[in-house]
Amino acid sequence: MRRDDPPKLFGVCFAKNEEDIIADSIAHAARFCDKVFVVDNASTDCTWEIVRGLDLENLVPVCSKDFAFRDYLRLRFMNTKKEELGLDNWWYMFDADEFLLEDPWKAILQAEKEGADCIAIEMIIFFMTKNEVRDQKENDRQETWRDRKYYVLYESGKVEFFKNTRYLDYGAYDIIPFGLTKECSQRLLIKHYPYRSLAQLEKRVHTRFGNPEFESECRRGIDLDRYIFDPKTLPKLRCWDEQNGLDLTGGFSINMPRIGDSLRDRTVALIIQTLCQLRLLHLFHTLYRRYAAWRQGVDLKNEPTF
């Protein structure tokens, strides 16, 4: 690829039981991506049928498989597609309940100028409130994600965009590959809808309960009342309305980079680049994977393939 060629962007989404929102989120991501790959985790609703029925030229329904979800499995899938993407092009990892608030290409081009290889996000998380649930029951009305209007501004710092460089190891047992060296100074805003309706909330809680990957949710248990909030008890909760839109003032912390801002990260970046020059990077990655698998308690014999 010539340096003056525009980079490509491949999106990857793992989904399970998201029939009420999957069509909208995939269509949204397809606006920005050259390809969107979707892996279904054996949904028991119509999620997979909806994905396969979408008429989007750049959508690639990969498979529907039953496996215990772990974040690093997305990297396993990306490893099978990194040659197709090509070096120095970009990945976008997104959940089925997320929507970008802005076009990501401005941030990607800014990252290219800065020599950064990843872009983090800030989340606008929408919640269900007790008043909404009461009104929903009284009116016997099925609500959707579009009905949600209460939200909080959450400084996530989660990396969802990164560049496919020759330094990366997709075998790392983590949410992002090993070898990223610098975060872009610009972060992207994501609208996140984890709690959309009573029916969806019940499916979400029972699907995730017992999976250590969702430890914070499991601690709340399976009582739905623990996931429905009272605006009076959440001072940071804001309310969206058609006249004023989203209020983004004073909510996010200073965008301090999480990758590339510390002595540790700069040292790791230097080691990786040096090992690559000495052609020892593959050996280092192999040893690191074994250490990471041991640290995460991964059963290598039962790893799913895509």
Helicity level: 25-40%
Largest sheet: 10 strands, mixed
Count of separate DSSP helical elements: 9
Distance between the termini: 27 Å
Mean pLDDT: 87
Please give the radius of gyration in angstroms. 20 Å
What CATH architecture would you give? Alpha-Beta Complex
Structural class assignment: alpha/beta
The oligomeric status of these chains comes to single chain
CATH topology: Spore Coat Polysaccharide Biosynthesis Protein SpsA, Chain A
CATH class: Alpha Beta
Domain count:
1
Percent range for β-strand residues:
15-25%
User: What is the number of beta strands?
Assistant: 10
Q: What is the molecular shape? A: globular
Which stretches are low in confidence, meaning pLDDT under 50 for 5 or more residues running? Answer: none
